[in-house]
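Wed. Picked up where I left off yesterday with Butyryl-CoA dehydrogenase. The coffee machine is broken again, so keeping this brief.
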Amino acid sequence: MTERAQAIAAKVEAFVRETVIPYEKDERATSHGPTDELVQEMRAKAKAAGVLTPHILSDGSHLNQRETAIVLIKSGLSPLGPLAVNTMAPDEGNMYLIGKVGSPEQKARFLEQLVSGESRSAFFMTEPAAENGAGSDPSMMQTTCRLDGNHWVINGRKAFITGAAGAKVGIVMAKSQDGACMFLVDLPDPAIRIERVLDTIDSSMPGGHSIVVIDNLRVPASQMLGASGEGFQYAQVRLSPARLSHCMRWLGAAIRAQEIASDYACRREAFGKKLIDHEGVGFMLAENMIDLQQCELMIDWCAGVLDSGSLGTVESSMAKVAVSEALFRIADRCVQVMGGMGVSGDTIVEQVFREVRAFRIYDGPTEVHKWSLARKIKRDHAKAHAG
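Structure written out below (tokens, as returned):
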């Protein structure tokens, strides 16, 4: 690991532990996510501490994926940490995508305000299941776009759009006669209407998750991201590292939950001895140690694949499955170790449990990734035995 990444990670960890964690009881951390007032207050402190958007360097270059991993893990030590230092989803993934695909003009208009932390963004891809729209299978996309002069006109409905309420930048996916397309849009826009913000099990994302109607949205042709029909390829550019970034951040949260549960077990007495001395409790925490180490190794391995120049779709699917399932086991054991305290809001353990449970679905459910991996096994078998 590079010295620069280690130094950045140390600064981020100190900031999260000393400055961000005290905000966890702030009333502005609502059931639909922290308010923008709270986010901007924390970001002002992050900027002053020199840890705002730490994965993007002052010259605009990015840390590589392995370097990013140790920084994002430290940012995740509090559910508010990624928000405070601007490494959260969907912004981190959107910044990466615009940086890779956007034109110089698009970067100046849309990317700079995200990197500076002054604005939030939303990624409009998923559609309502009741309408047989795109979810885990983006090829089912119902949202359409058609060229009208020098503008594209977009119509459709989107669902589970994280952070749409309060976002200033949007990336909208729609289907043209050429195939999937992506557009950069300024928000709010009267043609993009939030029907409702869903009540979900998680509560870490500002703006929550919305059902959105797009009604005759007119977007200048200059705001198409890349080329018409190439949207699915761009989605993969974004999704592979974004899945891994989720693993990084929530690993940080699971590490914190383990710290809290271990402290509790080492202090609490029952049946004549500390909880940690009861095998039923101590073994759960030991299993967590093993799972945490395996998660870190899986993340580092997948990050190395991405750093090699590979698109890493297979590796990121394996990492998403292995890490999300392990983190859920870790969070579940932490709740169990702490008993009644584990299901209360007195610590962040119960929130980590809720957030990681949602993570097993977001960015592709475990079963979809396993299905994709099984298809690869079948293709590889057919190729190996051809002729």
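Quick read: The chain has a mean pLDDT of 94.
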